[in-house]
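Working notes for the structural subgroup meeting. M.R. asked for a predicted model of this chain before we commit to crystallization trials. I am recording the input and output together here so anyone reviewing the notebook later can reproduce the run.

Input as submitted:
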Amino acid sequence: MPSIRQRIGFVAGLLGMFMAILDIQIVASSLNEIQAGVSATPDEISWVQTAYLIAEVIMIPLSGLLTRWLSTRYTFVISCLSFTAASIGCALAQTIEQLIVLRAIQGFVGGAMIPIVYAMSFSLFPTRVMGIVQALIGMIATTAPSIGPTLGGYITQATSWHWLFLMNVIPGLIAAAGVWFYLDMDKPDFSLFKKIDFLGLFFLIGFLGPLEYILEEGPGDDWFASHHIAGLTLISITSAVLFFWRAFSVDMPIVDLRVFRNRNFAVGSILGFVVGVALFGLVYLMPLFLGGVRHLNSLQIGQIMFVTGLSMFITAPIAGRLSDKVDIRYMLTFGLLMVGTGSLMNANLTADSGFYQFLWPQIVRGIGLLICIFTAARIAMGTLTDAQLGNAAGLFNLMRNLGGAVALAAMDTVRDIRFDYHWNQLIPAVNETRDAVSSQLFQLQHQFEGMVSDPYVLAVKQLASRVATEANVLSFNDMFIALGVIYLCAVPLMLFLRKPEAHDGGAAH
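Returned structure, recorded in C-alpha cell form:
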C-alpha cells in the first residue's frame, strides 16, 4: 500500500481531475449570461465550450510523453497551476476572442490531469484495493459532467458567470500543493526532449483538432453540405494518415500506439469508447428533453438528474469492494446490461414525463454506468507494465472522450432524421375529415375568438405544434432505444478479454 503522504497526494490529484472534467460542462447552462457579458453572437458563444473540448482532446494523449519527460509530479503541478491561471484569465476576459483563447488554454493545460490520475492509481495501489480506487475515480468521472450544468446555473444565478472560473482558484492551489509536497513517484528525464517527434505532434494536432470541431459543429452545419466542414474533414483524414505513419516509423513516437497490441487494452479502449457514448450522451439527452419538451429550468433539470449521481455515490464503495472479489469481466457484463436496460426503460416517454418517469431508469443506468467506467479502466490497464501506464491512460481517456463527441454529433443528426420521420407519419392523421380533429379545431377556434383576426389559422398552428411535440418525444424515445441497443450489443466483447493479473502497484517497489 502507498504511504499516507502518497495517499494525500493522490487525493489532491483527484481534486484536480474533478476540476478539469467539471469545467467541460459547467458553462453549459450559463452561455446566455456569458454571451451578454462579453457581447458575443450566438455563433461565437458556442466556442466557449468547443475551444475547451478541442484543446483537451489534443492534450490527453500527450500526457504520457510529458510524464516521462518531466515526471508525474512536475507535469501535474504545471498542468494544475496553468489551469488555475487560465481560469483567472477567463474570469477577467473582456471580449469573446479573449475568452475563447483562454478557454482553449484552460482545456489544453488541464487535460493532462485526467489521464495522470488514472496512471497514478495503477502505479500506486495494489490490485487488492484497486476496485475501490477505480470506483472512486469512476464516480468523479461520471458525477462531474452530470452536475456541471446545474452547478454552473446555480453559481451564475447566485453571483455572476465570472465565478464559474474563479471557483477553480482555491481548489487548484490545494491540488497543486498536495501533489507537489506529497507525491514524488518518479524522476524527470530531460534528455527525452531531444527525441520528441515534433512532426508527429503537428500531425496529431491536425488530426484531433479538426475531428473534434467536425463532431461539434457538423450537425448544425448540415455536415458535408458545408465547404468548411468538408475542408476540415480532408485536413483531419490527411493528418490522421500521416500521424499513424509517424507513430509506427519513428523510434520514439509522440503517442505510442503499440500498446494496442495488448488485447485487453484494445478491447478495453473500445469499451471505454462505448462508455463515453452513454456518459456524455445521457448528460446531453436528458436536459435536452426536460428543457425542450417540458420547459424546465436548469435547477429543476439538475434536481431530476441528481438521482443518477446519488445512485453512483451509493453504489461506488459496494461495487468497488465487490470487484476485488468477483471477476471484473462478469461485473462489466452486468454493468453493460444495466445501462442498456436502463436506457430501454426510458423508451416510452410522453410529453408529460418528469421525475418519476426518469427515477428508476436513472437508478439502473447510474449503477451500471459506474460499474462500466471503473471495470473498463481496470480491464484496459490491468495487464500493462508501469512503464506503459502513462501513455495508455492518455489513450484510454481519449477513446472515452471521442465516444462522447461521436455520440453527441450522431444524436443531433439522428434525432433530426427521426423527427422528420415521425412528423411525416403523424401529420396525415391530422385530417379535418376526422371527427376528433374537426372537434379539436372547433374548440381551439372558439378559444381564440376575439383574440386574433383569424382564429382558424391560429388553431391550425396550435394543432401543428402539438404534432411537432409528439414527433419530438418519439425521436427521443428512438435515441434511448439506440443507446440501449449499443450497450447490449457490446456484451459479446467480453469473450475477447482475459482476466487482468494482479500486480503490487508502483508504491510497493
